[in-house]
Q: What sequence folds into this?
């Protein structure tokens, strides 16, 4: 009897702690209506990762009325060569909020220090709750063999959530999902232990200017170079400043061009061959072996961009 009471008390304590954490994790986000539209949640390690990897596709979803939430799992508070701490975290929040408005989506930044993310049970609960509360159809994240520890552990946490989102007594304060979402990875070039192998490649030509505009407002990270930048990147001459902004924009154009060129053959799986050959900019995603395993028809429903 005593053991049963202790177990019940422990369960209730965990429940109320979980309840408090759940309401702080998604503060400031407007939950979408039950309108039958897709719900997409993308996790990035820092306030710029989702935007880099999926900003174009997110803008295309949003233009069709679907609901997209970008989550930065850390606050980015050491991601600059000159600034750090609370002021930098606030600056990056302002920048990424501007980016989200341009893309037509919502975003949230979790209160975890940049460079200190770990795949703990508390963080697993936090991501699980976010996915459940958003009632996600699609979940995206980094692959767990990325170069940055925050990227790797974001990938691990997303993978861990891929099963737990359906388990009723894990985070019992938020109802479990009845259907497991489709989990996908962002593209990268890392080869070990296994290379990125895309299942979906999306042409983002129609929204590339919007994506470039969104990346352009994150001045601390790109114009100023972020953690590996320097004062040399920030000229005082207005003409040189203009040239620097164009240099950044051109660099991101080439980045998305390289994705289209790299996966040109895969584009032909989704677009007529003549159209695939003309695609200039692309984003690519790989289906995680955890979560729902969609066939091509289901992927076309989740990425409704391929039919004219």
A:
């Amino acid at each position: 009897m005593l053991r049963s009471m202790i177990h019940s008390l422990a369960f209730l304590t965990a429940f109320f702690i979980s309840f408090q954490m759940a309401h702080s994790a998604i503060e400031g986000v407007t939950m979408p209506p039950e309108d039958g539209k897709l719900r997409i949640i993308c996790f990035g390690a820092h306030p710029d990762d989702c935007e880099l990897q999926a900003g174009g596709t997110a803008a295309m979803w949003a233009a069709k009325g679907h609901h997209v939430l970008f989550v930065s799992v850390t606050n980015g508070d050491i991601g600059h060569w000159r600034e750090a701490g609370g002021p930098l975290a606030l600056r990056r929040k302002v920048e990424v909020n501007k980016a989200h408005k341009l893309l037509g989506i919502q975003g949230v930044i979790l209160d975890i220090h940049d460079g200190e993310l770990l795949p703990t049970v508390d963080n697993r609960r936090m991501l699980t709750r976010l996915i459940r509360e958003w009632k996600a159809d699609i979940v995206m994240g980094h692959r767990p063999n990325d170069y940055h520890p925050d990227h790797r552990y974001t990938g691990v946490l997303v993978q861990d959530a891929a099963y737990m989102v359906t388990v009723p007594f894990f985070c019992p304060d938020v109802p479990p999902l009845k259907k497991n979402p489709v989990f996908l990875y962002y593209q990268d070039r890392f080869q070990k232990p296994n290379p990125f192998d895309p299942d979906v490649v999306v042409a983002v030509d129609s929204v590339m200017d919007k994506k470039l505009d969104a990346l352009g407002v994150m001045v601390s990270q790109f114009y100023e170079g972020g953690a590996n930048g320097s004062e040399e990147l920030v000229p005082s001459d207005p003409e040189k400043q203009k040239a620097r902004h164009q240099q950044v924009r051109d660099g991101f154009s080439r980045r998305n061009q390289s994705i289209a060129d790299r996966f040109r053959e895969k584009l032909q799986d989704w677009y007529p061959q003549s159209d695939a050959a003309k695609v200039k900019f692309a984003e690519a995603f790989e289906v995680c072996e955890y979560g729902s395993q969609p066939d091509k028809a289901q992927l076309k429903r989740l990425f409704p961009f391929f039919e004219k």
Remarks:
- The longest strand covers residues 282-291.
- The radius of gyration is 20 Å.
